[in-house]
Design brief:
The chain contains seven helices and nine strands; from the N terminus they run βαββααββααβαβαββ. A three-stranded antiparallel beta sheet has the order 1-3-2.
């Protein structure tokens, strides 16, 4: 039977949970030895050192455990456990909570599954710090959240990170901006070059004006300074 296992995680608690899942026991049936304490780099990713723990079944638990095959009796090391034992969405939500806590914020993260993606809705106070100027901090966190979730998934996952319904409010703001600038282009006859935007925000502008009878849009420049241009259609 498998008497001990070594697992890792971003926190000691996460490493213990993974070990318990593999052994199929509860925490009162194991002795936990912390082999390595976790450390965090920038936003918990760069320079990160995982927690490493060893779980050993107690004498009573060993006597109650079913016999396993020889393959299963080896002591598992870090990275041997399958990805599906860690829920990718819970890992992503935990990361968001950790980042918020490092900023002095206590937040709740609701996981909402949709047809094409999964949304992590953040709620709490002073979320402006997590959103950042025009959503730049939220976009950066969303990028990292997708990296973390996909580390624990065999198939590609797409996660949208939202806070205080910011994504919807920002979409409406950009659509209003698009229509206002389109009217200005029609009046002046001159094209308008918008400020640099993310691919997602540029898509909102393009979509809003794609069926406009008098103006067209296109993008120019290189990331991260790529911009949307609104110009009159050539009716000739």
């Amino acid at each position: 039977m498998m008497n001990s296992i070594v697992t890792s995680g971003r926190t000691i608690e996460e490493a213990v949970r993974q070990g318990l899942a593999i052994l199929g026991v509860t925490e009162d049936q194991v002795d936990v030895k912390v082999l390595e304490q976790p450390s965090k780099g920038f936003l918990g990713l760069i320079g990160v050192k995982a927690a490493k723990v060893e779980l050993t079944l107690t004498t009573n638990a060993q006597s109650e455990s079913p016999q396993r095959t020889k393959t299963e009796t080896k002591q598992l090391e870090v990275g041997d456990h399958p990805n599906h034992l860690v829920d990718p969405y819970e890992a992503a939500a935990s990361f968001v909570r950790d980042v918020a806590l490092s900023m002095g914020l206590e937040v709740e993260v609701e996981i909402v599954t949709k047809r094409d993606n999964t949304v992590l809705n953040i709620s709490g106070s002073e979320l402006g710090l997590l959103i950042g100027r025009r959503g730049q901090t939220l976009d950066a966190l969303q990028y990292l959240v997708n990296i973390i979730a996909n580390r624990h998934s065999d198939s590609f996952l797409r996660i949208i990170l939202d806070a205080e319904n910011f994504r919807e409010r920002r979409r409406k703001t950009l659509e209003q901006l698009a229509m206002r600038l389109a009217s200005k282009v029609i009046r002046s006859g001159k094209e308008m070059v918008l400020e640099p935007m993310s691919p997602q925000e540029r898509k909102i502008i393009h979509s809003r004006l794609q069926d406009h009878p008098e103006v067209k849009t296109f993008s120019k420049g290189e990331e991260p300074n790529r911009r949307v241009v609104i110009a009159l259609k050539n009716n000739k």
